[in-house]
């Protein structure tokens, strides 16, 4: 994962949707307080990390891509309770039994599951939780349908971001038991810059180094102009939150 988003960091920060504030309520209900330690693994540019900072507990942003981690550090600079760690999910460098909750936002599919299972069980305190978040774009609207069609048209490679792995089976195998799954509606309103950034931030779409980048950007601009209202468009997402524990 640590090089899949090279040349895409700014686009990722500009275009990816955030997460519902309901997630903070879930964390509080799981017992998070100002003495807790949350490890946000695969933190990326800090979209979730920034939200976690408001809980006033200790937040550890774990990210192996230096460009992404730098962006995360900049975005979260207002929080003194966030520590930034250059490390992969498979070897976080964290101490044994040191973490109350692990959060993983839009990154679980990138991890080496065998190595991560051992690492997560090592760093989690007894009965610690893992929260896995995923934003799924809803394709009911004509805009969303044309947008996803355009992404398929300009796909330049196959990555874990568009794999055919069954995510439910993957989690069941990983944790060794069933888990709680809840959903929240989540809307993202973006300008043209964010619209293009979101499409360009995907691991399988062209980067600025690809020859078809200009054509992709041109078609995105045309699509945005077709559907924009007051220079913005809105996407609807369904945010899935899986609340998991390892079997004992």
Question: Characteristics of this structure?
Answer:
248 residues; 9 helices; 23% strand
Describe the structure in your own words.
This protein has a seven-stranded mixed β-sheet with strand order 3-2-1-4-5-7-6. It is built from nine helices and seven strands; from the N terminus they run ααβαβαββαβααβααβ. It is globular and about 50 Å long. By secondary structure, it is of the alpha/beta class. The protein has helices at residues 9-15, 22-29, 47-53, 66-75, 113-123, 142-153, 167-175, 192-200, 213-227, and strands at residues 37-41, 58-62, 82-85, 99-105, 124-137, 180-190, 233-244. The protein has a domain at 9-137 and 159-187 and 236-244: Vaccinia Virus protein VP39 (Rossmann fold). It starts with 8 loop residues before the first helix and ends with a strand.
Characterize this entry briefly.
The protein has helices spanning 9-15, 22-29, 47-53, 66-75, 113-123, 142-153, 167-175, 192-200, 213-227; strands spanning 37-41, 58-62, 82-85, 99-105, 124-137, 180-190, 233-244. The chain is α/β, with parallel strands linked by helices and 248 residues long.
């Amino acid at each position: 994962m640590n090089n899949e988003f090279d040349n895409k960091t700014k686009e990722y920060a500009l275009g990816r949707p955030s997460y519902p504030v309901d997630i903070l309520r879930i964390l509080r209900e799981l017992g998070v307080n100002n003495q807790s330690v949350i490890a946000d693994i695969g933190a990326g540019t800090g979209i979730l990390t920034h939200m976690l900072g408001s809980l006033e507990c200790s937040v550890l942003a774990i990210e192996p891509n230096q460009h992404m981690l730098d962006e995360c550090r900049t975005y979260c600079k207002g929080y003194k309770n966030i520590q930034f760690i250059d490390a992969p999910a498979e070897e976080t460098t964290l101490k044994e039994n040191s973490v109350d909750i692990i959060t993983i936002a839009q990154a679980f599919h990138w991890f080496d599951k065998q190595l991560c299972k051992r690492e997560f069980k090592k760093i989690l305190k007894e009965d610690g939780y893992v929260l896995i978040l995923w934003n799924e774009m809803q394709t009911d609207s004509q805009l969303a349908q044309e947008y996803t069609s355009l992404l398929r048209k300009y796909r330049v490679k196959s990555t874990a971001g568009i794999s055919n792995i069954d995510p439910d089976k993957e989690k069941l195998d990983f944790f060794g038991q069933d888990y709680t799954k809840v959903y929240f509606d989540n809307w993202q309103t973006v300008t043209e810059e964010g619209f293009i950034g979101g499409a360009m931030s995907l691991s399988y779409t062209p980067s600025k180094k690809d020859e078809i980048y200009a054509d992709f950007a041109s078609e995105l601009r045309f699509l945005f102009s077709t559907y924009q209202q007051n220079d913005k468009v809105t996407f609807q997402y369904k945010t899935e939150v899986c609340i998991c524990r390892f079997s004992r």
